[in-house]
C-alpha cells in the first residue's frame, strides 16, 4: 500500500465545517432519521421558473461550448447593467469577471494578490472559507473580534491591527454567520482607510439583496471612484436567485486585478458553465419578483426564530439585519452543561436530529449558527428539539 503525502500548502486547510454538517445530516437521513437541517447556507427555494426555462432554451440552442474564460460578454454586460441599476456605478467590462460561484471569485482574487507573509484583516465571526484561502496563499489572517461591538466593524478597529505587512481587508455585509449589516458610512470609512494606507478591500456581497427593512442593500460599488478603485466587489447569484448549484459568481475590480484573476481561471476551471451563464442573464435581466418573495419569507422566519431562540434558557440572540442566519450566544447553556459549542452541535445532531453549525467554526466560540433557509414548520420543530435537549442537559 503506498502512502499518499499531501502538499505542504494544505497542511493547515480544514474541510468546510458547514459542508461537513450537511454531509452528517445526509448520513443520518440515510439511516432513516427525520433530520431537520438548520445547518445549510442554501436557500430552500427552487430556482425560479424563468431562469430554469432560460437554461433549457440555452441548451436547446446549443449553448454548450467553451466561452471566454472570464465569462461571456453578454453576461458581463448584464452584470455591469445590474450593478449600474443598483448603485449608479458603471463598470467597464474589463473590470468584470464571471466565475464558478462567489467562492471561486474570492479564491482567484486572493491567489492573484497575496504573497507569502501578507496579512489579511478578517473580522470575526467570519465565513469559514476566508482564512482557509488566505492560508492556502501563504498569507496570514489577522482576526478582529467584533462580538463585543454587536458584530460591527469600524475603521478604528482595523487601524489598531495594521502592520507594514497588511495588504487586504475583507468585509462581508450582510454577514455569514452573524447576519450583521455594516452601515454604509462605516464601509466608506473602511475604504478611506484602505486608500490612505495602500490596502485593498474585498467586499463580499453575496447576501446583498437579503437585507430586512429598515436596513437597505448597500454595495461598495457605490463608493466614489477614488475609493472604489481599491475595492473588489464579490457577488453571487447563488443565494439571491436560489441558484447555488448553478455556480455563477462574479467580481468587479481594478482591470489589472481582473486580468490576473482571468489568468488563474483560464488555467483552472476555464469558463463557468455555459448554459448557466445564459440562465444568469435571465436572472439579472428578468423579473425580480421571486427575490422579493424570498426576502419576505426569510423575514417572516427571522421574526419567528429570533425571539424563539432568545427565549431558550441560557441563550441570547441579537436580531440579524440580513442574510438568513441567526447566531445565538449559547454560552449560558454550555457553561451549565460543561460542554463546548462543537459538542453541543454534535449532540443536537445525534440526539435531537437537528443540524446546526458550532460558532467556533466561524471564530466565535459559544455561539451556534442556525440557518432559517428552511420552512417555518421545520424551524419550529427544530427549535422544539433544541429546547428539549437543553432541558435534558440541565
Ligand atoms: C459569505 C459567503 N461568501 C461567498 C459564498 C459563496 O457562495 P457561492 O460560491 O455559492 O457563490 C458564500 C456561500 O455560502 C458565503 O456564505
From TrEMBL:
Q: What is this protein called?
A: Aminotransferase
Domain of life according to the entry: Bacteria
Name what cofactor the protein needs: pyridoxal 5'-phosphate
> What is its EC class?
transferase
Q: Which residues form a coiled coil?
A: none
Single annotated GO MF: transaminase activity
Enumerate the PANTHER family for this protein: ASPARTATE AMINOTRANSFERASE
Domain Aminotransferase class I/classII large, chain residue ranges per copy: 35-386
Q: Which UniProt keywords apply?
A: Aminotransferase, Pyridoxal phosphate, Transferase
Extract the PROSITE patterns matched here.
Answer: AA_TRANSFER_CLASS_1
- The record's EC number reads 2.6.1.-
Q: Please report which protein family the annotation says this sequence is part of.
A: Belongs to the class-I pyridoxal-phosphate-dependent aminotransferase family.
Q: Which InterPro entries match?
A: Aminotransferase_I/II_large, AspAT/PAT-like, NHTrfase_class1_PyrdxlP-BS, PyrdxlP-dep_Trfase, PyrdxlP-dep_Trfase_major, PyrdxlP-dep_Trfase_small
Organism phylogeny: Bacteria, Pseudomonadati, Acidobacteriota, Terriglobia, Terriglobales
